[in-house]
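ERR on first pass: missing label on line 2. Operator R.T. fixed the label and resubmitted. Corrected input:
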Amino acid sequence: MIECKDLSLVYPDGTQGLKNVNITINPGEFVVIVGLSGAGKSTLIRSLNRLVQPTSGGLYIDGENILSLKPNELRKLRTKVGMIFQHHNLVKRNTVMKNVIAGRLGYVGTLRSLMNLYSKEDRSLAYENLKRVSIEEKVHTRADQLSGGQQQRVSIARVLTQQPNVILADEPVASLDPPTSHQVMNYLRKINREDGITTIVNLHFIDMAMEYADRIIGMRAGQVVFDGHVSEVSERTFEDIYDRKIKEDDLRGGNEPYESNKAITS
Amino acid sequence: MNTSVLPPPKPKRWKSFWIKTVSILLFSVLIGWSILGIAGGLNIERVFSMTTIERAQTVIPQLLQLNGEQFGRIVGLIIETLAIAFTGCLMATVFSVPLGFLTAKNMMGNTWLGQVVHSFFKVWLNATRTFPEILLALIFVASIGPSPFAGVLAIAIGSTGMLGKLFGETIETVDMAVVEAMQANGANKVQILFYAILPQVIPEFLSYAIYRFEIDVRASTILGVIGAGGIGTLIVISAANRNWGEVGLIVLCIIIVVTVIDYFSAFIRRKLV
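pass 2 clean. output:
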C-alpha cells in the first residue's frame, strides 16, 4: 500500500511540483496518472522512489515513511520499486542480457556484480523475463541494435528481474508508435494481472488511459484534481482535468487489434 | 510572366564595415612592420649564394645514399623509442581516468567542495598541457640523469594533460538517464560506475589513448636529442659526424614506423567507436 499524505514538493528554482497530494494506492492496482505536461505526473511518480525529494508531507509504503530513509535503506526500497522510463535508459553498448541482469544489482554484492559472477538462478530469472516479453532471441544482441519498442520491452524485463512489488512507468509509450505503444501497455497490464504487481503509469493519451487503467488519477498544476475508478470517467472528466476541450493529440489511437496483441492478451 | 521575388537586400551595417576596415589596416601595418624588421637582419646575398647551393648539393645526395652499417642499432633504438612512447602513454592513460572523473562537472555534483575540486584539477591539467614534452624532458634529464626513464616521465606528464581533459569531456557527455535508471533499481555508487558510466566511455577512452600514442611516438623520436633515450640520440651523433647516409636511413625508418602506426591506430579506432 502506498499512501501520500499532504505531499508537496517545491523545486529549488521555486516551481511548485506537487501541492498537498493525498492519495492511497492499494496493492495490485493498475493506476494511470493523466495530465498535461508540467502537471506534476513525473514529479509524483519520481517521488515514490525518491528520485526527487518531496519537501513536505508524508509518503508511506507499507506503513513505512520513506521520506526519512537513509541511503542504504533507500537502495533496499528501490530494489522493490521498479521503474520504466520514456527513453528506456538502457546502456546502448551492452548486450540485452547485461542490461537485464542489471536488475539484480540491488541484490548481489558489489564485487560479484563487477566480476559478472551471477548465480544460475539470477541468470535464468533474467532469461525467463526476456521470454515473458517475447524478446529472448535477442539475448546476446547489443541494445542499440533493437527498435524502440524492443528496447522498451527489454527495460520491462529489467524491471521484472528486480522482482519488484511496485512498477512505476514514466511515460513508457511517449516515444513509440501507436501499435507498439499498445503492445507495451499490454505487457504491463498482463504482468500486473499475473504477478499482482502494483503498477503506476504516467500517460497523456486519454484513450490508452481508459483502456488499460483500473483507476485514473488526474493532475493539474501539481494537484490531484480527479481520482476514481475508470468506470466513473467520461470525456467531461478529461476536459475538467485538462481544463480545455479534448483534441486529436490527446488520443493515441491505433488499437485495431493486431495479431501480436491478441497473442499477448489471450 | 513569372516575376521571381528576390529576398530583401541585406541591411548594411556601418559598424561592421568600420570594424573590417580598421582591422584590415591594422593587419597590413603589422605585416609591413615585421617585414621591415626582418629585412634589416637578413643577408639575402648569403641565403642565395653559391655556398648554400653547394652545401645543399653535398648534403642532400648523401642523405639519399643510405648507410646501413648501424642498421641493427637503429632498429634497437627505434624499438626503445616505441617503448618510451608506449610506457609513457600507458602511464598517462591510467592517471587520466581518475583525473577525468575529477574534472567532469556531472560527476562532481553541485556542492561547494565538488566545484572547488573540479576547478582545481581543471587548472592543474591546463597547466600541465602548457609544457612541451621537450621542456619536461629537459627537467627530468636534469633531475634523474639522461636515461629512457626521463623520456617516459616527460611523455607521461605531457599526455596526462591532454588525456585527462579529453576523458573529462567524454564523461560529461555520458547519458545520465542511464545512471538514473541504475539508481532507481537500487544499485550502489560502484555498481553505477561499472554498469552505467564505464560501458559508455571506455571505447572513447581507448580511442583517445591510441591517438595520443600516435602523437607520443612522434614526440619521443626527438627526446633523444637532449639525452632522454630513443632514436634521437643517434640522429644527433650521426649528424655531428656528418654521417648523412646514416641520418637518411634513420629518418626513413622513422617515416615508415610512424606511417604504419598511424595506419593501424586509425584502423583500430574506427573499429572501437
